[in-house]
């Protein structure tokens, strides 16, 4: 991805909105996309603000978490992308996730009664906390480093007593960044936890197919139709398109109305993916294309007999012949 773009005939660095403050896992994802030397980093208080910064033209791109091995889909991201002016995903980045329990210097593990943590971090450390700090109270934080910054500022002013928490779950590098003391390291329950982040931008050029791509969609089903979900899934299955994620989110206008957030293997320029999208367009009242982009793990899909590009093209040629009276 290029990191500069024309602006009134000038080259200016791209601006990236992301969940801050400094040192979040989101920032680690952003560093894989563009270094702070060549891009402008715009930390935001939450995921929705990062995405809105792109819609409002304050940022060129947003980097946001979309899925984690422990919690599944990041609902704030899925919901922000599902409505509002159209945006697309341009790239995905994987970040291994581990946590340190940290506090201001002078705090001991035995002092800890209340821990500030992002809700996803809390869930990822739940079993460790139950075993080592039973009864400890969760104080929700807006990001993994927001409480680290508060602890650091309060310690600099002489006391952390009024903060409402004694310690925080933070990304390991943030311990040093914010001058904290580690109380316990590697406290995540799943040592191989990974969070998937995406780069969000305005619709325009779609990243070129690599052979190992992903396509993200939002789909609504027809109301009150038996088998509507099955019919939607068949659009993928009959074309040999595997799904790597599907989850339902409330549309929000009435009980029982859900939209489906889907990651499909392949690129919109693949014949089988294009055919599946046309099937969705015919069967479903609403389909939002959220982009085709290279998979971070570079895993190529298994192409089943009868679903390769060449076989779709040959089938279309055969039909043209039939329609023109040339078929034998
Ligand atoms: O980027 C961060 O550090 C965050 O606080 C966000 C977030 C998330 O939204 O899932 C990112 C990675 C971890 O899975 C926990 C929290």
Automatic annotation (TrEMBL):
UniProtKB keywords: Amino-acid biosynthesis, Aromatic amino acid biosynthesis, Lyase, Phenylalanine biosynthesis
Presence of keyword Lyase: yes
Enzyme class, first EC level, given as a word: lyase
InterPro entries, per the entry: ACT-like_dom_sf, ACT_dom, Chor_mutase/pphenate_deHydtase, Preph_deHydtase, Preph_deHydtase_CS
Annotated positions for site Essential for prephenate dehydratase activity: 195
Highest taxon, organism lineage: Bacteria
Catalyzed chemical reaction(s): prephenate + H(+) = 3-phenylpyruvate + CO2 + H2O
GO molecular-function term, one example from the UniProt record: prephenate dehydratase activity
UniProt domain Prephenate dehydratase: residue ranges: 15-202
Domain ACT: 217-295
GO BP of this protein: L-phenylalanine biosynthetic process
SUPFAM superfamilies (alphabetical): ACT-like, Periplasmic binding protein-like II
GO cellular component: cytoplasm
NCBIfam families: PRK11898.1
UniProt protein name: Prephenate dehydratase
Name of the encoding gene: pheA
């Amino acid at each position: 991805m290029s990191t500069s773009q024309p602006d009134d005939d000038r080259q200016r660095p791209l601006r990236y909105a992301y969940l801050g403050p400094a040192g979040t896992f989101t920032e680690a994802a952003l560093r894989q996309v563009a270094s702070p030397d060549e891009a402008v980093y715009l930390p935001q208080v939450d995921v929705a603000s990062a995405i809105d910064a792109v819609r409002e033209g304050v940022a060129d791109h947003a980097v946001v978490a979309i899925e984690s091995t422990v919690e599944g889909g990041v609902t704030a991201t899925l919901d922000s992308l599902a409505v509002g002016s159209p945006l697309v995903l341009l790239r995905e980045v994987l970040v291994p996730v581990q946590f340190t329990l940290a506090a201001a210097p002078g705090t001991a593990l035995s002092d800890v009664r209340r821990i500030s943590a992002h809700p996803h971090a809390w869930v990822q450390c739940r079993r460790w906390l139950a075993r080592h700090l039973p009864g400890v109270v969760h104080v929700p934080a807006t990001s993994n480093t927001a409480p680290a910054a508060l602890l650091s500022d309060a310690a600099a002013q002489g006391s952390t007593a009024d903060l409402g928490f004694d310690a925080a779950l933070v990304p390991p590098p943030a311990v040093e960044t914010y001058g904290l003391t580690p109380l316990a390291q590697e406290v995540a329950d799943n040592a191989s936890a990974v969070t998937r982040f995406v780069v969000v931008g305005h619709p325009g050029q779609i990243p070129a197919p690599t052979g190992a791509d992903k396509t993200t969609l939002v789909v609504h089903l027809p109301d009150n139709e038996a088998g509507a979900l099955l019919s939607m899934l068949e659009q993928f299955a009959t074309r040999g398109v595997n799904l790597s994620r599907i989850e339902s989110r409330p549309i929000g206008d009435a009980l029982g109305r859900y939209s489906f957030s889907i990651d499909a293997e392949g690129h919109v320029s693949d014949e089988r993916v294009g055919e599946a999208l046309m099937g969705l367009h015919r069967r479903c009242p609403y389909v939002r294309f959220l982009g085709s982009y290279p998979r971070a793990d570079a895993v190529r899909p298994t192409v089943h007999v009868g679903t390769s590009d060449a076989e779709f093209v040959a089938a279309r040629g055969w039909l043209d012949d039939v329609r023109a009276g040339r078929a034998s």
